Amino acid sequence: MFAFIHSSDLHLGKRFGSFSGDLPGRLREARHDVIGRLADHARAQGVATVLLAGDTFDTETPAPEVRRQALTAMAQHAGIRWVILPGNHDSLQASQLWATVRSEAPENVILALEPHVIELAADVMLLPAPCTTRRAGRDLTDWMNGAATPEGALRLGLAHGAIQGFSEEAVAADIIAPDRAMHAGLAYLALGDWHGAIEVNARTRYSGTPEPDRFKHDQPGEALLVRIAGTAALPEVTALPTARFSWRTLPLHLHDGDDPAEALARLLPEMHSRRQTLARVIATGRSRLPARTALAGAIAHSAPDFAFLELDDTGLATECDVTDLDQIDRAGSLREAAEALLLEAGNEALSAGDREIARAALARLYSYAQAVAS
Q: DSSP string of 335-364?
């Protein structure tokens, strides 16, 4: 029996520049703290090895404090061995980075910087495929097929990149063969790059990132506990929760006449979890101008409870008639602008996108008029 934890895509030092206030710092700190959470899981499960399948750092030039503090955190868990593989974000092309990490790495950190067999334990061999550049242009796991290991040894693969078209950056030029584990005699192939956990086959998995960093996957952050009883046995894989923050996409479909504030209240998570939640509400369906304005107001009222809360109402069609325009203005330039936008919103000669832009502009004008009136 050999057991280990499979994780990847820590992206330490990620800036989160699209957010403001103290949130970027909180998100960066959560990513650093993943090291401790992985170590806690390792101790709780009685395993001594953590495989990090690439993109430990977010860039090829992480700040010195990001690099040093990560290695220090790993050193503090001396009973655990950390195996770090370069990914596409921190590839071997960053020669200065890896030379520095090599000089600073504590004894319990193994750097998988070459496609050479690494002995993890008696009769347990690791076959790493470090990313040579951001875009290698070839399958870096090819070498595993012919790699020599002692007879009867357990062969584990460690790689980073796209497989079966899965690629975080929508580029699949370096696709890893989906049947690599079978052809290379691997008991398990631990992959990084895709930020959501995926089982490619019984012996090949993406662990996903332990701390989500986008709405794309809508999955909780986790790492994988992998136990393998022998070369012929299938891996026993268990997901371990690791995330401090939750990123959630919340669909909200409205019909004309619905109370958007009530619908939103039913949708949002419990109050106790909101500070650690980043949420995007996707509004669809149809709504009148007053209801659309009420929805925006309800989002603004709830937003301070969350780490981040935003409304995407591009898919919400706006219904409007003359009585709604009267609430903007009964005459004058505002009324003329509102009537022009209403005509554009219903003009079938315009594209659907242009009509929706007109509807959204009309909704903003209505909201502005209501704010002034109040």
A: HHHHHHHHHHHT-TTS-HHHHHHHHHHHHH
Predicted confidence (pLDDT) per residue in 315-370, tens digit: 888 777 777 788 888 888 888 888 888 888 878 899 988 887 887 788 788 888 87
The segment(s) of the chain belonging to CATH 3.60.21.10 are 2-241
Distance CA 151, CA 51 (A): 23
280 to each of 22, 172, 250, how far by Cα in Å? 19, 28, 6
CB 64 within 8 A of CB 18: no
CA distances from 20 to 16, 17, 24, 25, 265 (A): 9, 7, 7, 9, 25
Whole-number Å distance between alpha carbons of 168 and 180:
20
Query: How do beta strands 81-84 and 109-111 pair?
Result: parallel
- Phi, psi (deg, nearest 5) at residue 336: -65, -40
Which helix (H) or strand (E) segment is 334 a member of? helix 332-345
| Alpha-carbon span 308 to 319, nearest angstrom | 29
Fold (CATH) for 2-241: Purple Acid Phosphatase; chain A, domain 2 (3.60.21)
Question: 55-98: per-residue pLDDT in tens?
Answer: 999 999 999 999 999 999 999 999 999 999 999 999 999 999 99
- Whether the CB-CB separation of 3 and 46 falls below 8 Å is answered with yes
Rounded (5°) CA angle 175-94-100: 130
